[in-house]
Amino acid sequence: MKKIAILAPNDNKLNELKILFAESLSEIIFEVGSLADGVIKAKQLVEQGVEIIIARGESAYNIRDACPSVAVIDIPISGFDLAIALEKAREYGGTVAVVSFPSMIKQVECLETAIGIKIKKYYLKSREQVNAQIDQALHDGANVLLGGFTTISAAKKRNLPCVEIVTGSHAYIEAFNSAKSLLVTIEQEKRKSGMITTVLDYAYEGIVSIDETGRIIAINPVAKKILKSPITLDIGADIDVVWPSLKLRDVIVTGVGVRNQLLYVNNVQVLCNKVPITYRTGAIGAVATFQDVTKIQMMESRIRKEIYSKGHIAAYTFKDIHSSDPGIKMTIDLARSFSNSNANVLILGETGSGKEVFAQSIHNQSKQSKGPFVAVNCAALPAQLLESELFGYIGGAFTGASKEGKLGLFEVAHTGTIFLDEISEMDVVNQGRLLRVLQERSVVRLGSDKVIPVSVRVIAATNKKLSDLVKQGQFREDLFYRLNVLNLRIPPLRKRKKDIPLYVKTFLSQLCQEADKTIKFSSGALKLLQSHDWPGNVRQLRNVIERVVAVAKKDTVSTTFLSQLLMFESDSDNRTVESDEARTILKALDENNGVIASAAKALHVNRTTLWRKMNRLGITK
Q1: In the prediction, which pLDDT does 569 show?
Q2: Looking at residue 572, what is its pLDDT?
Q3: Whole-angstrom Cα distance, residue 184 to residue 68?
Q4: Which sign does the torsion angle of CA 295, 300, 306, 312 carry?
Q5: Are 603 and 619 in contact (CB under 8 A)?
Q6: Is 557 exposed, middle or buried (0-12, 13-18, 19+ CB in 10 A)?
């Protein structure tokens, strides 16, 4: 696309220019246009994408005024062209009046002495002034008038002596070279401007900048949306009228920026940064960037969730808790009701009873369900390490600390839930820090004095009686009451043995599908499972089922096979289970499909003796 146009005063000049610029025809649009016609032509050229127009005198002046979006280059009058015109004018007398637009007579002063005539200058701002300036020149004693098309036309109508300044080829070449240089600059500026505009339009922050007078010189869509001012927010608006409390002019006066300032605009709280725009000796303007605090919090929450969600997701819901026991059903109903509250929860139950399953289920049905679920085993970490994990630290806070510092798990759990398992094992120092977090709803990283607000629901769990630990001075009473707002007790598996067949069925279905096996329990084996005390509760039961699926070679699990597994599962100090006698009896039972008479015969003992030994060793059919 051609972006440079030359306006010639007539067709003859147009043809001359086409010959003059024969090698640059691919770069230039040639048009005839002078005065009013020149303005019309210029507007048409701008619509076609022309960015620079080369024109003479009044035409250039008018186009610049009518088309501010286009660059206008005046065709200069060379000293040689002036010298020729002055030489002709001298024939009329020694006093010459140059009546013209400023761009045409820049070099006339230097020729006055050289040629030996007196030259008076009369500048035009519009063609309407021409006759008045001619009258003034005649009054001042001018012998001849010198000028361009406008002056010569007026002089000829009045039969006054005049000489036209004719623009030579060199002037057009110089103007074209200037236009090409300017075009490169324009393209560079457009590139920069486009990049800046894109940054402004797609920035998440509101951005507004002002000049030294306090007038807006740039404002992006986000800023307009936040400001919602009835005052026009276009370029040129007074910032003190649009947003008085911003006091952006003060930054220009002091030359000092202001960071992280909380302000209100239209009942919206924003976090604002203000910095001066400096050039050489001082500030020539200022820029303010600001964000809606609520959106900052939402973005922070989303970022935290995206970064830390892989390991901090609650997988279980209440649908995963299966039971036919009335006690457990009541516990589930109570836990569901806890989900509707933001209060802290204390879950009591033996090891393996499903405390975390309940905690995750409460989280997934709560208002915090879209936030992270962070589980921490307070007994698994030494006191100092637990402190840095829970509350985080800044770089260099202690020997071995990461240079970048680390987020604490309370920060990670922001807008979600933190599950503190085995809370009874937490040391006194960390109990104090935890109490402060619960009271202040904020954390301070190790080595820092900066307070970081957090919104976290706390669910704690223990297999010990915290009230007894409080009496013994091992657990803070004030922390106990902070945690024990809502209380949930999970009964052990031995008190709800009717649930065991349901759990066995569920676990078998899951584990057999993973192992691509088909396994079932005999009625005797199932009764054996129900008769077991299960000190490790549901977790221990699942472990046993998982071990059965892993090692069973038959589709049906016999009582004998299961008895052997349960014996090795026991943590009792009674080593009879591992004796050669027990192993021998179990092997005989397994080889005879559990038939006691056949096993007794294989062992060369009578049936009564075998029963007695089995009872003594704890072997159940």
Answers
A1: 59
A2: 44
A3: 19
A4: negative
A5: no
A6: buried
Helix (H) or strand (E) holding 82: helix 79-89
**Alpha helices, H only, 255-382:** 293-308, 326-339, 355-364
φ and ψ of 64, to 5 deg: -60, -35
pLDDT (tens digit, 9 = 90+) per residue, 362-412?
Answer: 999 999 888 889 999 988 888 888 888 898 888 766 655 566 678 889 988
Cβ contact 170:78 at 8 Å: yes
CA-nearest of 79, 75, 81 to 101 is 75
Q: Two tokens at 70?
A: 């286009």
| Secondary structure of residue 377 in the 3-state scheme | strand
Higher pLDDT, 78 or 171: 171
d(CA 45, CA 2): 10
d(CA 593, CA 522): 12
Residues 33 and 5: their CA atoms lie apart, in Å, by 11
Taking alpha carbons only, the member of 327, 307, 446 closest to residue 384 is 446
Model pLDDT, residue 476: 93
pLDDT for res 571: 45
- Helix and strand numbers, DSSP H then E, in the chain: 26, 22
Amino acid at 437: V
Q: How many residues does the chain have?
A: 621
Helix (H, G, I), strand (E, B) or coil at 27: coil
- Count of CB atoms within 10 A of residue 116's CB? 10
Burial grade of 403 (CB within 10 A; 0-12, 13-18, 19 or more): exposed
Dihedral sign of CA atoms 431, 437, 443, 448 in order:
negative
What is the pTM assigned to this prediction?
A: 0.50
CA distance 196 to 204: 14
Question: SS3 for 447-500, per residue?
Answer: CCCCEEECCCEEEEEECCCHHHHHHCCCCCHHHHHHHCCEEEECCCHHHCHHHH
* pLDDT (0 to 100) of residue 574: 44
Structure confidence at residue 195 (pLDDT): 76
Q: In terms of DSSP bridges, do strands 52-55 and 28-32 run parallel, antiparallel, or are they unpaired?
A: unpaired
Q: Quick: pLDDT tens for 443-458.
A: 988 888 888 888 999 9
Mean pLDDT of 191-200: 76
Q: Terminus-to-terminus CA distance in the chain, angstroms?
A: 96
Residue 369 carries which DSSP code?
Answer: T
pLDDT in tens, 222-274: 888 888 765 556 778 889 888 888 999 999 999 899 988 889 888 888 889 99
456 burial type by CB count under 10 A (0-12 exposed, 13-18 middle, 19+ buried) = buried
> What is the DSSP annotation of 35-71?
HHHHHHHHHHHHHTT--EEEE-HHHHHHHHHH-TTSE
